[in-house]
Amino acid sequence: MKTLYLDIFSGISGDMFIGAMLDLGVDFHQFEHELGKLKLDGYHLHAARKQKAQIEGVKFDVHLAHAHDHENGHSGGTKHSHSHDDHGHDHHHEHEEHSHEHGEHDHSHQHEEHHRAQEHGEHSHGRNFSEIKMLIADSSLSLWVKEKSIAIFHCIAVAEGQIHGMPPEQVHFHEVGAVDSIVDIIGACVAVELLGKPKILAGDVIEGTGWINCAHGRFPIPAPATLAILGARGIALSQCDEPHELVTPTGAALLAELVESFGPMQNLIASRIGFGLGTRDNHTRPNVLRAILGETSGASAAHDWQTDSIAVLETNLDDVTGELLGHFVEKALAEGALEVFHTPIQMKKNRPGVLLTVLCAASDADKFSEMILRETSAFGVRRSICDRRKLHRELQTVKTSFGEVTGKIGKLNGKIVQFAPEFESCKKLAESQKVSLKTICEAFAAAVGESSKIK
Questions:
Q1: How far apart are CA 397 and CA 252, in angstroms?
Q2: In the chain, what is the straight-line distance between the N-terminal and C-terminal CA atoms, in Å?
Q3: β-strand 306-317 against 199-202: which pairing, if any?
Q4: Sheet (strand 415-421) strand order
Q5: What DSSP string describes 159-200?
Q6: 415, burial (CB in 10 Å: exposed 0-12, middle 13-18, buried 19+)
Q7: How far is residue 439's CA from residue 270's CA, in Å, rounded to a whole number?
Q8: Which residues partner with 347 through β-bridges?
């Protein structure tokens, strides 16, 4: 399976992500053409091959047109670009004298965008989520790019809404409402599509330390929005001793919406490696995002099943009542556990007992471990992380000879391999048609066999 792995040992920002995609082979002119469908003026693109800590990659920038036009006498709103293969050094030199304005646009300094927008005459309050949604919806971008872009902006809007105590639709973006950040987010989706929409995985998320000056004031790193976005998706964050922001809100939102799972590389055969360069010269690590494009080897590569990792929590109990067990099962499921069950076992001194097992998201392991210790008689909990393979699941309405039944369909490599009718749907139809529940279930199975009857 075609797979893109993001090695985020030094963080991630929108422009670093796009730089890495260009270095992997995304055609700059095609990328620019697709972004032109957005009908957004006031910027020009620049991509050049450069080095950061002796690592060669692509430095991508969105330059606001106002400063460029003022410097070179162009009319306002004109977009201007160079591919990363053409005149990269010359263009960089041309903008060196006003690097104060553009030199920090790696979103490591995303908190400065609001002030840059004011300097360049841009809307000082940014745009709200509704305006950005309308901008994307009215464009001629592909449906996939539209859906992914809106999902990323919604992710940010929800986080900002929680911070400010308002509905997502009413959130006014400051940093990510500026033209350069809009281009970064939508451009990231365009780049992934041009790369063939591979499965995206990522390493552990590493952030720096220190303070930032953002639209909300002076805050410790991670930025409030970054922390909220990653937390909402259940993405673990670790800090290193680099005294700078490494993960921006835009970068966090890209991870939250595009990446399937996080962890070390497994069975990945690299065919291409790209580096997206930032601007800073970091103290402890090069300011680059490494992206690896390749194929997943082994049995997984032959199937399109979904993969993830879950936590398995277990404890042996020989002194818990049935009432307590029943209560725990109901509570754990209500709190979001994937599965909860208990199995009869024989414990030491030939005592009968139960093995209590909870399956949950890895990010919820501590929460349910605490619940076991508080709600049962357990003195300890065993914990392990297991890889999981899942069929692509979808609810379908199936037309049977008795009426419509809703059921769960499981597909592998595009073919139905599992199916199960929803009990309540079957029960309701059986009662209305005055037939047995078994008859309805059998009718559902027969109908699934004729795929043309599945809506």
A1: 37
A2: 28
A3: unpaired
A4: 392-399, 404-412, 415-421
A5: HHHHHHTS-GGGPBPSGGGSHHHHHHHHHHHHHHHHTT--EE
A6: exposed
A7: 52
A8: none
pLDDT in tens, 271-323: 999 999 998 889 899 999 999 999 876 545 567 777 778 899 999 999 999 99
Please enumerate in sequence order all residues whose Cβ is within 8 A of that of 149, keeping only pairs 6 or more positions apart, or say none: 136, 141, 185, 186, 189
What separation in angstroms does the CA of 122 have from each of 32, 115, 174, 215?
22, 10, 11, 15
| Beta carbons within 8 Å of 179's beta carbon, 6+ residues apart | 40, 42, 43, 62, 64, 117, 122
CB-CB neighbours of 134 under 10 Å? 12
Please write the tens of the pLDDT for every residue from 203-230: 999 999 999 887 667 889 999 899 999 9
Three-state DSSP state, 350: helix
pTM: 0.60
> In the beta sheet, which residues pair with residue 307?
389
Count other Cβ atoms within 10 Å, centred on residue 454: 16
Cβ 95 vs Cβ 63: under 8 Å: yes
Amino acid identity for residue 127 in this structure: R
CA distance 156 to 215: 14
Burial class of residue 431, CB neighbours in 10 A (0-12, 13-18, 19+)? exposed
